[in-house]
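SEVERITY: medium
COMPONENT: batch folding queue
REPORTER: lab tech (J.R.)

DESCRIPTION
The queue accepted two submissions in a row. Attaching both inputs and their returned structure tokens so the on-call engineer can compare them side by side.

ATTACHMENT 1
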Amino acid sequence: MDPLPNPAPLAAKLRNTLVRYHGIGDGEWRLAKKTKDATVWRKPSEEFSGYLYKAQGVVEDVTNRVVDHIRPGPYRLDWDSLMTSMDILETFEENCCVMHYTTAGQLWNIIAPREFVDFSYTTSYEDGLLTCGISLDYGEVRPNFVRGFNHPCGWFCVPLKDSPGHSLLTGYIQTELRGMLPQSAVDTAMSSTLANFYSDLKKALKT
């Protein structure tokens, strides 16, 4: 088990990685799924043998409120159907924390429940916010869970120029679920999970 990292250099590196992903040209992405709420693309990850997913959609709310629902905190468990528990293990200054969370089984439990320990960082980006994270090898694995690993992930949320009450939400997700899983099942689950994330978030923001 690794000790907890120094938050400042990890936060800076994480932000730079996400900004680099945000600059990847459209031609490098392949469409994975499209719904009324979001479009999901993917490309091979540079971090592991799976995919880096990009999701994008417009959300009817102001940037701060959208990000408050996504980042670690009291809102997330209320609306995210995939997340079954969340505990903040350590809080640093500068909007950094370490959290432990668990996710429900997926695809008729072909994908068993997973647990993650993530470093999370929220910072300003252009006129909006970026909330990003990366998994840490920290703490004991809980019984009946497989420990997954999030390579650099994050959500950019910026107000729409013509409609400041709406936000453009763009996510970059690359999750290594680990365990004995067919890659096709993982790919199906990821695209659907990201599309559902937008529809669940929109419902939560309306309440």
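ATTACHMENT 2
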Amino acid sequence: LIKTAELDPQQNYLVGFHPHGVLAAGAFLNFCTEASGFSILFPGITPHLMMLSLWFRFPFFRDYLMSGGLIPSNKESASYVLQKPEGGNLLAIIVGGAQEALDAHPGSFTLLLKNRKGFVRLAIQHGTPLVPAFSFGENDVFDQVKNPKGSWLRRIQCWLQQIMGISLPLFHARGIFQYSFGLIPYRRPICTVVGKPIPVQKKHRPSEEEVDEVHQKYINELSNLFEKHKAKYNIPADSHLEFI
């Protein structure tokens, strides 16, 4: 976990996390555990990561998720976290969601963000600063069966996602005693870089133009964050983020 700016513990923050990857390993490890020393990097800040509401329907597993700071991905839960009057809450949203997992191939930098504006509207309604975060290596810990758009596999995956709410990427990596096939992730680093906050003016009912303006600022800041740090993580100079 890499910090590029200080976060005031007397404020709440909304972090957009990119990319989803196959299993969102970077988001879980960095915002739901102390594996990367979150409390040391951001003292006084309590992270909460949004997860598909489906997983909270299972007894005991739901309690395990909540013990790690995970909350259901609905507006009510998000608003509750961002309304803390004394501040100190951080809400992390994997903006691309389950659909973006289907594009999680090694070396891919395709983000489902162009028409994802709900998190921006939420930030404006609460006057919460937006913070972009990019996880380098997130797409490299698993291989996924090729599923280009228009293929029969992609059509089936999209159809199942519409029915169940979760995507089903066909992924593989290594085994315990061999490195050729299995479901254990490859030994590749995931480095999540947290950008600087983007100030947001509070407005209960923002117009579409106001949402679009802040959304474009966010995209620009995320692109700048990627371009500034990509060389440190061996990303080719001619590789850039692609927004769909």
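NOTES FROM REPORTER
The chain has a mean pLDDT of 94.
No errors were logged for either attachment.
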